[in-house]
Structure to design on (666 residues):
């Protein structure tokens, strides 16, 4: 009995001597110094068996800040003695920042076991995290914490205890940096894609594919894929990192070969790089097939890492050869490739257990790719610059040769140039005439289709009624003839308006503006327009003082008559049409105001266009040419037309003409 008590005391003393003591001042504590491990090649041991095999646990002597067992098929048991100081929180978090732990069995001293890992449902994790965050209650007495870990990839077990608030703060900072990295990857991929779509240079497409696949591989390896994209795809998550990184390595070698090796190169170096590309494609396929055949193909990841080292050597030799040949444009590429190769080599050596595992070696690939991809982008830009410069020099040489040839044949070409210019002018004149005729036919066809249909329909219907009435001995001839005459008169007026529009274009060239006293002239025009105003009254508030404008009397009369015609057509019978004179700096105005429906703001500029009508369905006669004629006449005088209108309150059109300034006698 005394011997048993003595052994228990000795065992307790041993735990106390090795136990990691947590204090209130500790934000995070790395447990590697007090961690002990034991290999389980069969994977059959259970926690009760392990607790009885304490003597088989050995302290970690491999260096680094993380337990790194390399590629192994064994399960590993890890135990850590822990205790906390007085006045120290009892609730802590044990964090394993390695997403590729296949099976993670956690046995805390005073709580139920937690069985999680990448091969188990994401919901098995106590905390929603890309890594494995395990709640841990630490007592003041030394107690062992046990873990069982396995991995289909290189097995790493970083053991760090965190205070909960400290870990949450660290995670926010860490994830911010991670997503800055992924944002940079997306930007570089878009850079390659946009330039490829602009230049159709396949080197940029390969660079884009490399950036995307490398980013996806690191995204999967860091646990973001399982956490955010495919939480329930257990088997795909196991192979996603290897598959994407194999494809990234394939595109990296292909990209390097496109840049470094001429298309006609048949050297052993070119063949070796092609074989490396093939092995990477094969590795990506084998890694993906591990979802179906996990055991026979478990060494595909080792093949990937070995080929990465071989690929790095081949591309480095090709880079040095290009440098020794003094080929321009490869300084950024060589620097970027050396950075990537160093990062991949460090990751490979760490995975095989030849380098200690710590933050630098764990993130070697991610750190190297972030710098390498930037340097590769600079390399592509540098190559484009050099190629553009060479193209510019070639163009300059060709231009110089062409200039010499041009000078030699300048005399004969001058004659040809004059002949071509003369012929071009003839063709342009013919084309202009053809366009004018076509526009005229289009306008005429538009007028026919929109305005002539109604009167023609009236004529047709009245003729048909006359025929039927004649058959039934009904005499309505006078009524029908009157309707046909009215419709015919409407057609005649529309033809006159159309012919007037074309005639105006010719007569404006012979415009003869002269001083015109507006008051008596307006009285004369109103008297001659009584046939237009017989249903309306006219208000003529003219200014008493003489107002002399510089105008062509005939054309100005056409413009004013068109405005009066419009005012009477759109104003109800019995309303007043107001015609008045106005003045402003350097201009005299003739304003016509109606009591019509008004014109909405969005149509006030369009009403001066040919054949435009605000409401063609209103039934008001017209073809949409009157206001365009008005604007052309006033513009030919050096004046302008203004329109003020509010829907429901009529419209005011004002013709502004230049003031006649008599020359002073000297």
């Amino acid at each position: 009995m005394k011997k048993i008590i003595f052994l228990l005391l000795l065992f307790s003393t041993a735990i106390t001597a090795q136990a990691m003591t947590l204090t209130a001042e500790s934000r995070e504590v790395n447990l590697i110094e007090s961690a002990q491990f034991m290999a389980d090649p069969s994977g059959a041991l259970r926690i009760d068996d392990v607790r009885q095999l304490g003597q088989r646990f050995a302290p970690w002597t491999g260096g680094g800040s993380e337990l790194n067992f390399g590629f192994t098929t064994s399960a590993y048991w890890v135990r850590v003695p822990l205790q906390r100081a007085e006045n120290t929180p009892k609730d802590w978090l044990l964090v394993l920042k390695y997403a590729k732990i296949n099976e993670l069995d956690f046995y805390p001293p005073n709580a139920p076991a937690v069985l999680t890992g990448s091969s188990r449902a994401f919901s098995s994790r106590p905390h929603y995290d890309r890594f494995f965050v395990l709640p841990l209650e630490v007592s003041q007495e030394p107690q062992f914490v046990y873990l069982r870990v396995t991995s289909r990839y290189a097995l790493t077990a970083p053991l760090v205890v965190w205070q909960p608030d400290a870990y949450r703060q660290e995670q926010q900072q860490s994830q911010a940096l991670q997503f800055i990295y992924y944002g940079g990857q997306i930007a570089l991929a878009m850079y390659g894609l946009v330039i490829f779509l602009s230049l159709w240079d396949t080197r940029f497409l390969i660079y884009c594919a490399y950036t995307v696949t490398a980013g996806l591989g690191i995204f999967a390896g860091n646990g973001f894929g399982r956490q955010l994209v495919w939480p329930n795809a257990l088997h795909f998550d196991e192979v996603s990192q290897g598959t994407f990184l194999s494809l990234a390595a394939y595109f990296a070698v292909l990209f390097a070969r496109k840049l470094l090796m001429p298309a006609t190169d048949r050297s052993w170096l070119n063949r070796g790089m092609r074989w490396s590309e093939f092995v990477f494609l094969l590795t990506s396929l084998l890694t993906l097939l591990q979802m179906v055949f996990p055991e026979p193909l478990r060494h595909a990841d080792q093949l990937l890492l070995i080929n990465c080292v071989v690929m790095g050597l081949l591309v480095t030799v090709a880079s040095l050869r290009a440098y020794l040949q003094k080929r321009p444009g490869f300084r950024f590429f060589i620097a970027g490739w050396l950075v990537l190769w160093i990062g991949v080599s460090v990751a490979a050596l760490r995975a095989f257990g030849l380098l200690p595992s710590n933050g630098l070696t764990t993130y070697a690939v991610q750190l190297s790719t972030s710098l390498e991809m930037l340097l590769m982008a600079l390399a592509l830009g540098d190559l484009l610059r050099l190629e553009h410069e060479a193209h510019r020099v070639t163009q300059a040489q060709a231009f110089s040769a062409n200039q010499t040839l041009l000078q030699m044949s300048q005399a004969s070409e001058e004659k040809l140039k004059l002949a071509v210019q003369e012929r071009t002018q003839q063709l342009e004149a013919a084309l202009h005439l053809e366009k004018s005729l076509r526009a005229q036919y289009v306008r005429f066809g538009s007028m026919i289709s929109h305005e002539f249909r109604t009167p023609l329909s009236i004529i047709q219907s009245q003729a048909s009624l006359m025929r039927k009435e004649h058959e039934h001995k009904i005499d309505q001839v006078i009524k029908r003839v009157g309707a046909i005459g009215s419709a015919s008169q409407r057609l005649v007026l529309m033809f006159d308006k159309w012919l007037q529009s074309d005639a105006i274009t010719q007569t404006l060239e012979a415009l003869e503006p002269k001083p015109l006293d507006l008051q008596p002239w307006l009285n004369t025009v109103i008297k001659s327009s009584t046939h237009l105003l017989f249903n309306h009254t006219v208000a003529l508030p003219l200014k008493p003082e003489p107002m002399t404008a510089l105008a062509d009397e005939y054309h100005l009369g056409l413009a004013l008559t068109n405005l009066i015609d419009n005012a009477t057509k759109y104003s109800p019978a019995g309303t007043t049409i107001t015609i008045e004179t106005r003045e402003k700096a350097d201009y005299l105005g003739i304003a016509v105001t109606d009591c019509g429906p008004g014109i909405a703001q969005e149509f006030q500029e369009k009403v001066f266009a040919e054949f435009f009508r605000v409401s063609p369905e209103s039934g008001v006669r017209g073809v949409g040419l009157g206001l365009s004629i008005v604007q052309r006449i006033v513009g030919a005088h050096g004046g302008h037309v203004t329109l003020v209108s509010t829907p429901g309150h009529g419209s005011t059109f004002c013709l502004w003409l230049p003031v006649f300034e008599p020359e002073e006698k000297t």
Q: What stands out?
A: The CA atoms of residues 466 and 629 lie 39 Å apart. DSSP finds 16 helices and 20 strands in the chain.
